[in-house]
Amino acid sequence: MKVKLSRHAGFCFGVKRAINTALKANSVSGSVYTYGPIIHNPQVVKDFDVKGIKAVEDLKKVKSGSTIIIRTHGVPPGVERQFKTKKLKVIDATCPFVKKPQEYVRQLERDGYTPVIIGEAEHPEVIGIKGYGGKRTIVVGTAEEAAKIRSVRKMGIVVQTTQSGSNFLAIMNVLSGKSMEFRILNTICNATHERQDSALKLAGEVDIMIVVGGKNSANTKHLAEVCETTGVETRHIESASELQTAWFRGKKTAGVTAGASTPDWIIKEVAESIKKL
Ligand code: SF4
After folding, report:
1. What is the pTM of this model?
2. What DSSP string runs through the chain?
3. pLDDT digits over 263-274, tens only?
4. Catalytic residues
5. What is the pLDDT of residues 162-197, one digit of tens each?
6. What is the fold of 13-95?
7. The CATH fold of domain 97-188
8. What residues does each domain of the chain span?
9. What residues line ligand 1, using a CB cutoff of 6 Å?
């Protein structure tokens, strides 16, 4: 099987920075935790666990004085206050591209706008951004949800960094009828654009697309959705062990892409395994 790799695939700037930050902290301190998994990739989280960097959601499990790392998705200000109360040493690895919508939502609130976040309400990044707005902050994930929100006088919009451009536009189309005055900050990150654009291009050149990354990774899921829009058969896997020979029967070329939280070694392993089929 011939394999073509997407031009942009795998670790982005923010993920590399967070991983290096955590490893550096672990080399100088024996008690390092990440607040939630460092990234949405089970293999990396397992590797961190072996190295002694534990992912925790419950601060009761963290001893006072330990080091806690805020991952790329960020956290709401209320959680940062809990870190302080517990006297934890905080290392903030929130991606600078996630800081932007956090700060913008806070500013929108101050300027009297109703903040609207386009994204997945349950995603940690969106929960973190929402924490910077007031009670009236709204999250919408689909055009259908957008149609249900009430009209407001002044609306300020930010976007989860990993949203697809097409979903953003579909929602904006609906929101345009919900207010007279808008402020919009398109906070979809460039790494997301690059990965989606190059995956879309590649999907048009191959018989099957294999998208590699955590099943809980928003950017990997969106990457798979983008590939599916081209009509090409698309499979989302976490590792080479999930590949099935039947998928490739009668096909000549496979395209491989990966989310921003997928390590290079997993992408290579998948590509090499497909070549042998
Ligand atoms: S995908 Fe973008 S926003 Fe998310 S961590 Fe990577 S660089 Fe930062």
Report:
1. 0.89
2. -EEEE-SS-S--HHHHHHHHHHHHHHHH-S-EEEES-SSS-HHHHHHHHHTT-EEES-GGGS-TT-EEEE-TT---HHHHHHHHHTTPEEEE---HHHHHHHHHHHHHHHTT-EEEEES-TTSHHHHHHHTTS-TT-EEE-SHHHHHHSPP-SEEEEEE-TT--HHHHHHHHHHHTTS-SEEEEE----HHHHHHHHHHHHHHTTSSEEEEES-TT-HHHHHHHHHHHTTT-EEEEESSGGG--GGGGTT--EEEEEE-TT--HHHHHHHHHHHHT-
3. 999 999 999 999
4. 125
5. 998 999 999 999 999 999 999 999 999 999 989 999
6. Rossmann fold (3.40.50)
7. Cobalt-precorrin-4 Transmethylase; domain 1 (3.40.1010)
8. 2-10+191-275, 13-95, 97-188
9. 12-15, 72, 95, 97-98, 161-162, 189, 191-192, 219, 260
